[in-house]
Amino acid sequence: MNYVIIGNSAAAVGCIEGLRKNDTKASITVISDEVHHVYSRPLISYYLAGTVTHENMVYRKADFYEKMNVKTMLGSKATAIDAKKKAVTLENGETVGYDKLLIATGSSAFVPPIDGLDKQNNVFTFLKYDSALDIEKLIDKDAKVVIVGAGLIGLKAAEGLAPVSGSVHVVEMADRVLPMILDEQGAAPVQAKMQENGVTFHLGITAQKVVDKDRVEKVVLKDGTEIACDVLVMAVGVRPNVAEAMAAGVKANRGILVDENMRTNVDDIYAAGDVTEAVDVTTGEHKIMALWPNAYLQGRAAAYDMCSAEHDFDGVFPMNAVGFFGLPIITAGVQDGEDMQVLSTGENGESKRFIVKDDILVGMILVGDVDRAGIYTYLMSEKIPLSTLTKKLTDDDFGLMAFEEEQRNERLSS
Amino acid sequence: MKKVYADEKWCLGCGLCNVYCRTCHSETNDIVKAHNFEEPRPKSRLHVETGEKVNFALQCRHCDDPKCVTACITGAMQKDPDTGLVTNDTDRCVGCWTCVLACPFGAIVRDEDAGKVAAKCDLCVKSGEPECVKHCPNNALKFEDRE
After folding, report:
1. Count: domains in chain B
2. Predicted structure pTM score
3. Long-range CB contacts for residues A59-67, cutoff 8 Å, separation at least 24
4. A377, A391, A403: best mutation site toward chain B, by most B Cβ within 10 Å?
5. Are B44 and B6 found together in one domain?
6. pLDDT digits 0-9 by tens, A95-135
7. What is the mean pLDDT of residues A46-55?
8. Is A341 a residue whose pLDDT tops 90?
9. Any residues with CB less than 8 A from the CB of B89 and at least 6 apart, and which?
10. Contacts of residue B74 in chain A, CB cutoff 8 Å?
């Protein structure tokens, strides 16, 4: 059997480890346009801040490919997939045949049209290690950084760059930080924490134009505010890298549509990770859930299906843990919706918000106090009726004690 | 593999397991220094839950397919394929708390003092037998292979 994986991040590793659990002999080839040994993408902001070394950027140890007996073609971009001939074509014209293919091509930063924004040499996105290495060359204690977008990527960039640069300005169209994952109550303490650490925000406004041609010297906002700039980071959003897959007949909306086993509509072609739209098991809807742990699990689920092996895969739903300057945030599931009840508690920048529908926990936002959050995640994934619990979600001492005796003892004896 | 099992019928909720867990995970290995003097202050890796009628102590279950390991964004959290032990490489952990989000038992402890890392039960590999079990005054914790 000959497995080929396009991409070399969390989904690829999930797939490799899943394949090797079931098949020690098969040929596995990883094709990636990036040259690096598999690294942890979320750590690039830590690398810039100087808190993670180059050596510790690796997601799996240096001998990973060797131990897993994986052939790597790094620095090779896959430019076409031929689903009939079952082959992948690389940029250099070479073709790589497959029996089963995993598309784990991730996503790319979406750069919105802004007046004057061209290919200036100090404009970056913040998804890849190479971007971080390029940014690093321009950063010193006087560097003025402007970041467009206050989502997860923009704010992690701000956190990473604030300690090593002169100033960091963040411009965001929405009226709050992290608008996709936090409500106002959750966003306020995050913004305050970042401001304490030297980050300046321009919220509810867009960047209208940038000046000049070869190098962006300043960013001009809609209200005329001018922000001096040495490094511009564009972090307004991402788009799944679906072009090559779609050209091969793989169905996609924004992301590649996959079933619960990560199969696409084309035989023997699977997809996993940020490139996909998969079923959110808490809502039943197809959506992009571009998050590291999900990517790993999806890659592994694809591997088990490729090997026709039994697999206990519960599916995925949106969930995220992130922190800024020591303030931890955990979110999962939906933020709000029809017929939903909200339970909230907390003060002084620590808050918990639970979203409940028909006696089932369907979403949560925890800011500041995230201890034992996985118990809530478990309630969500197992759809445990909250009325069977002996404690309220908002209780300070919420824990396994809240479960009925039988369930609790089953948990304790696992 | 051998794991620590709690029997809630016998647990007094006294917290001695916490005391010895913390001591075992200190630099000084001294019960007084570990609790009152050592900096950074070592953390216990277990949770004692107390109720009106029952109490129990809970630590990492060293799951067969640990959600903390598949969720870990750095690769610091790993399950040893030979011993089954789930361990966190604190040099590589960045304290993102994705493992805290993923662990269905709420077993992982946030150690903000020791450089913001995830702390968890390591079955006291350093001393051979889990200290919580050794010092439980009512045999409410057992170290057994039940598989």
Report:
1. 2
2. 0.96
3. A59/A9, A59/A10, A59/A13, A59/B74, A59/B75, A60/A13, A60/B75, A61/B75, A62/A37, A64/A13, A64/A37, A64/A38, A65/A30, A65/A37
4. A377
5. yes
6. 999 999 999 999 999 999 999 999 899 999 999 999 999 99
7. 96
8. no
9. B76, B77, B78
10. 40, 43, 56, 59
Q: Is B56 on the interface with A (CB under 8 A)?
A: yes
pLDDT in tens, A130-187: 999 999 999 999 999 999 999 999 999 999 999 999 999 999 999 999 999 998 888 9
Of B33, B11, B15, nearest to B23 by C-alpha is B33
Question: Is A60 close to B75, i.e. CB distance below 8 A?
Answer: yes
Among B51, B102, B112, whose Cβ lies nearest the Cβ of A374? B102
Band (pLDDT 50/70/90 cuts) for residue B115 is confident
- The CATH number that applies at residue B113 is 3.30.70.20
Complete domains list, chain A, with CATH:
2-108+239-306 (3.50.50.60), 123-236 (3.50.50.60), 327-412 (3.30.390.30)
- In this prediction, residue B126 has a pLDDT band, given cuts at 50, 70 and 90, of confident
Count of C-beta atoms within a 10 Å radius of residue B62? 23
Residue-number span of the structural domain to which B87 is assigned: 62-120
Distances (CA, A) of A3 to A20, A63, A344, B85: 11, 20, 48, 30
B79 lies in the same domain as B55:
no
Per-residue model confidence (pLDDT) at position A196: 97
What's the CATH code of the domain at B134?
Answer: 3.30.70
Burial A141-153 (b: 16+ CB within 10 A, else e): eebbbbbbbbbbb
**Cα gap A28→A86, rounded to integer Å:** 15
Q: What is the pLDDT of residues B19-30, one digit of tens each?
A: 999 999 999 999
B1 touches chain A (CB under 8 A): no
Nearest to A374 among B50, B65, B100 (CB): B100
Token pair of A211, please?
Answer: 């000046």
